[in-house]
Design the sequence.
């Protein structure tokens, strides 16, 4: 690992950052997502919520994997086509190969990546499992998207914020309700990066399956997790003032599907209820 070691809490012998407390009494979105992806870094409370959701919506696992595939397509496009060499991935989740830095550095070995997440489990596994190319760097910090200034201050030790950065908020903002300042948080992040930077974002929507999504909202709420689906118009607000790339704001599977790889989920008759876009700061 290269870059700012002080940005992350030091791992303990048990693999959990010193001073961090893992709350296993309620589910965490990153760990539920890990369970959907077939990972092992989750707790019974996370699996219980995942199984409850799956009992009512068998497509939930497909949705998680489809969202991961969008991240791979978007990152590859940014590195190969847009020439982006710096990535700030907020709400990165528990490492699941291929990770964002592996994709970016596969196209550009000198790419610099900073991951941020508010779950100590994510940080612990990131520090243990994610390794950079010699030419680039990968750093990890424990921070919440609701503290954008802290994220930017820590990320600046590894990234040059005077040069273009891809800010990745994949499957994150639907865990931040409007009353927590969701739009203001994204604007703060976009305002802090220069012209030529990109915003990558995917967002759950109720427009395709209102009943099913509402069930998901209620199940997450029962587990103490807020879920905030948004319409296409509400999602578009995140990209205010930005220039859409490729097909613009579309359903998740419609964003450059031709860029998919062998690990992508096959399309089903029912589309994944997420909007997604990549947009450039002019």
Sequence:
């Amino acid at each position: 690992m290269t870059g700012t070691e002080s940005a992350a809490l030091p791992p303990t012998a048990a693999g959990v950052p010193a001073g961090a407390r893992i709350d296993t009494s309620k589910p965490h979105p990153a760990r539920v997502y890990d369970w959907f992806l077939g990972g092992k870094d989750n707790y019974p409370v996370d699996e219980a919520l995942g199984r409850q959701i799956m009992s009512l919506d068998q497509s939930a696992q497909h949705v998680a994997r489809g969202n991961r595939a969008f991240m791979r397509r978007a990152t590859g496009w940014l590195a190969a086509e847009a020439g982006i060499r710096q990535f700030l991935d907020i709400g990165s989740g528990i490492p699941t190969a291929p990770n964002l830095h592996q994709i970016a550095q596969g196209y550009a070995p000198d790419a610099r990546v900073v991951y941020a997440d508010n779950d100590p489990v994510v940080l612990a596994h990131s520090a243990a499992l994610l390794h950079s190319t010699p030419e680039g760097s990968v750093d990890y910090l424990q921070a919440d998207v609701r503290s954008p200034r802290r994220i930017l201050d820590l990320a600046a030790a590894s990234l040059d914020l005077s040069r273009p950065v891809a800010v990745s908020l994949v499957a994150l903002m639907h865990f931040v309700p409007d009353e927590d300042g969701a739009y203001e948080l994204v604007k703060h992040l976009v305002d802090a990066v220069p012209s030529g930077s990109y915003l990558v974002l995917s967002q759950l929507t109720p427009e395709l399956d209102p009943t099913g999504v509402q069930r998901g909202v209620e199940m997450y709420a029962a587990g103490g997790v807020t879920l905030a689906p948004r319409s296409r118009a509400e999602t578009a607000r995140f990209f205010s003032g930005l220039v859409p790339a490729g097909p613009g704001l579309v359903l998740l599977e419609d964003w450059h599907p031709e860029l998919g790889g062998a690990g992508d989920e096959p399309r089903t008759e029912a589309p994944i209820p997420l909007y997604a876009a990549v947009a450039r700061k002019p």
About this structure: Strands lie at 86-90, 112-117, 137-142, 166-169, 198-204, 243-244, 250-251, 274-280. The two ends are 33 Å apart (CA to CA). Residues 96 and 124 are 14 Å apart (CA to CA).
